[in-house]
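R.M. (postdoc): so does anyone remember the format we settled on? I'll just put the structure tokens first.
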């Protein structure tokens, strides 16, 4: 790895009234790899998701289930997976699940990761993650030109 930067982003869906809380948020990272190593990072991510379908996060006592999804065509290669866990006690309907989406996209030797975090236990909206992934790829392509 040559360099990595990360940030936290909040977003609102189109049509959300002014003054309302955000609809969701992302943990967003951009990593520059040495030539040829970015493909390895995506391959290792796929293997990690397959190899660890259940996990506990350090700040959460629930067990999250992970599975790979069809990512679609983003950049020079991409990985998309979902994370599911039961809603925390007292949140949502009984039996409801919290769903997060994580997409990693490679553009040349750069990998950007968007980990949708929701807002107050909202569910990820795939169309929003797809749109934000396209914007992230376009920003990297413009930066690399």
């Amino acid at each position: 790895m040559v360099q990595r930067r990360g940030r936290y982003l909040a977003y609102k869906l189109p049509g959300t009234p002014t003054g309302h809380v955000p609809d969701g948020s992302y943990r967003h990272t951009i990593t520059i790899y040495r030539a040829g190593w970015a493909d390895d990072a995506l391959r290792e991510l796929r293997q990690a998701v397959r190899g660890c379908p259940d996990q506990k996060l350090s700040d959460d006592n629930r067990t999250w289930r992970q599975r790979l999804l069809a990512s679609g065509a983003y950049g020079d290669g991409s990985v998309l997976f979902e994370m599911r866990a039961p809603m925390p006690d007292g949140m949502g309907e009984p039996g409801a699940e919290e769903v997060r989406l994580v997409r990693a996209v490679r553009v040349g030797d750069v990998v950007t990761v968007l980990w949708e975090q929701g807002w107050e236990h909202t569910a990820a909206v795939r169309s929003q993650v797809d749109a934000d992934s396209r914007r992230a790829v376009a920003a990297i392509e413009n930066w690399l030109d």
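R.M.: ...and that's the designed sequence above, right after the tokens. Also worth knowing: The first strand starts at residue 3 and ends at 11. The CA atoms of residues 32 and 110 lie 5 Å apart.
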